[in-house]
Amino acid sequence: MRCLDAGVRFQVLGPLAASVPLPSAAQPRRLLAILLARPNEFVHRDALVDELWPDGAPSSAAAIVQVTVSKLRKVLGEQRLRNGPLGYRLTVEPGDLDTDRFLALADAGALEEALGCWRGPAFEDVAGGPLVEAHKVWLNDRRWSVFRRYTALELERGRHREVVDELAKVVADRPTDEQLVAQFVVALDRCGRRDAALRALDRARVALWEQAAVRPGDDLHRLYRRIAGREWTSGDPPAQLPATLPDFVGRAVQLAELERERGLVVLHGPPGIGKTALAVQAARRARKRFPDGQLYAEIGRLAPRDVLAGFLAALGVEPPEDLNELVGLWRGQTSDRRLLIVLDGVVSERQLRSLLPSGPGCLVLATSRRRLLGLPGQAVEVGELAEIEDLLGRERVLAEPVAGVELIRLCRGLPLAARVAGAKLAQRPHLRVSELAERMADETRVLDELIAGDLSVRSALSSAMRERSAEEREALRLLATCSPEVTEWSAAALLGLPVPAARDLLDALVDGHLVKTDGRDALGSVRYVLPDFVRLFWRAAPDPGATGRAFAAVLERLAVAYGALAASPAGSAHTVSLLGLAADGPEAAVKLLNAGSLHWEDGRSQRARRYFELAESRFRTLGDDRGTGASLVALADVHAELGDGQRALSELREALVLLKGDAQGQSVAAYQLGSLLEDLGDVRRAIESFELSMLLAEDRNDQAAKRYADVLRRHGRHDEAGTLLEKALGNATRAGEQHWEAHVLRSLGDLHTELGEPADGGRHLARSLRLFEQLGHRHAAAYTHRSLADACHLAGDQVAAEGHLRTAMTTFADLGDRRGAGYALLSLGRIRGDASAFTLAANLFRELGFPLWELRALAGLNSRSQGCERTREALTKISGAPGS
């Protein structure tokens, strides 16, 4: 049975104290405060370092923590202060901490006794880091909450004389606590000290304005009216700005620009992007430049008459009934004033024009979901937020780096989505980042997941949709359910409109931030794309009946439009991204296969699979064995990456039969089969397949040579691998095939890195990366970034290694490339010595069905004396692989 040193009690409700003498030095007392803020929990060593040195830790920080813990152990006892793999834990028995007694007494209603536990502010003599400071705030808030309950009960019992002096001391320290001020004023009034009560209210009004730039609330106004017998009026300017968001982050450049502005600034952007938060934050920063006050109104569908009447009343002017007189009076009252006006949710230019002040010294910050054209002043587009991880909770995201990157991607740069996800993580400590990311990855439920209290992405989108016309809403629904990426001509076919009308409708939706433009296609047509959350909004709650009735007609219109485009000289070379393009003939099947290849190169595996499946179906219908075989080879590559290795194996074997007589086609199928067999653990058969591929191509297939070289390198046959890669590089360079040259350079870089030559490896990899970036192949570049991370780590450049790895992991997460994510996790384990990364990699490769790669991940665990049982399981799978 565990035995603790008896009799050690701790006090934190005031100066830090204990029933045993504590070290007098600051460092042990600060460390003890951290552990007492999290009693009976392991506090990670890294968290201790961050807490003790919030402005940057010395290189000896870990050693200092160890020594400090040792000093505390001598006082508190070995059994009370324990260490483990997660850090250090201070065991505190029930009743040994004064906060436990305080909270228990407060819950039991013994409020006066509970308040007696306090000797001063919590941790009064300890300067803490973020964790301790947050705990101080929480404890002190609980103290004053109990004090308010206590004084309220005392006032109900008629004991105002007993609490008035104590309230006077508290209010002197907390002059902006309106509830305490109200209790103090009531006590003074009941004691017959009417003038003192009114003076207390006036002091509170001044403090609220000077410290928080707000005016007294309704409760204080009612008290003043009851005691003084008149309205509480003052010459203070109006201060109507709402509070800023406590978790506001980013937008530094825009804030700096807005602080200097005058005139009209319209902040426009999609729903949930943070327009109001930015406007209020900027207004708060700039308010001191506008001494005549700040006015705020949520416009929405309000009539200008109501808004102006409210503004004039705030300025102390009686508003007239006639609208023209109202506008004239507003302009007259604002001609010489310096006012800051925030108009939130403006719907139209007409609505805004009548609300503009006439004076040049005013600033109007208007927010709108639309681009308001034709207005004076400046328009500022509020785009995606880069600092999404801060809204999610940086510590939670960093604790699960792979899942964190995925969650950031799933928020799609939308602050509202991140704020909802962050609220869930903060309020539900048991919820893992990976679990939330998995839920949000389900497109059928993501909008249901993004609700927290009155925060809702769906509600924000619904409000935006209500502002659009019926025709625009129908267009969005059709785009979301049929084709979220269109050009003006395909949109015209989809919507059944003339091209000019379709263009105008799309441009109106672009102005409303419900459709985005994405460059131009090969024919020079503008590409229009639905933002993800708009697409998900309409797909989550479609009209199944309407969709079913319209779908056949839509397909027919698309086929006619495609046929017209394909018949033109320019269109024949242009691959159109539509729903499989229901057209006849082998040309359409070839176009589908080519379209799939383009999506596959860009890392869009699901879309690529859809095109390859359509191509395979079309070729089978046409009886084209060669086309069917080529489609199966392409599909096998996709299925292997998506973790369906057995399906890929079946497809490649069928392709080899169908491609009989086509040596080049069979060569491609054979090297694809070799790569897959190695992943499945059948190395002998893999090498045989590569040898067959090389024989079929008469050594002219550089892609087979490159992949064969990768397998040979991984199994220690470095000289053979080097010979194949040098030859493949020469051929690619002479042929001017930069894409393939970059692939071979990456393999050469990996070879040199594995041979302990990071300088040569880095040189090849840097060339590979430059070529991929020039070609715009982000997906392939991510694999090179991953290889560069290994080379930089071997060269001792840890910062560069982690930078390359971060880029690779972000791209793999964006594109849903689980195989690439597994490779990156292996690198993460090697670079950081992180066993959890190897565990994640092993789990991922197990899900993908790649036992050899699972074994490589488990090898990293085994080097840390972990994962032996899993290793035996992986070896069993490999021994049972086809042909083993």
TrEMBL record:
What residues does the OmpR/PhoB-type domain cover? 1-92
InterPro entries per the UniProt record, alphabetical: AAA_22, AfsR-DnrI-RedD_regulator, BTAD, OmpR/PhoB-type_DNA-bd, P-loop_NTPase, Sig_transdc_resp-reg_C-effctor, TPR-like_helical_dom_sf, TPR_rpt
DNA-binding as a keyword?
Answer: yes
The feature table lists the DNA-binding region at 1-92
Q: Which SMART domains match?
A: BTAD, TPR, Trans_reg_C
Q: Name one GO molecular function term.
A: DNA binding
Q: Where are the TPR repeats?
A: 667-700
Tell me a GO biological process for this protein.
phosphorelay signal transduction system
Keywords from the named record: DNA-binding, TPR repeat, Transcription, Transcription regulation
| Homology family | Belongs to the AfsR/DnrI/RedD regulatory family.
Indicate what this protein is called per its UniProt record.
DNA-binding transcriptional activator of the SARP family
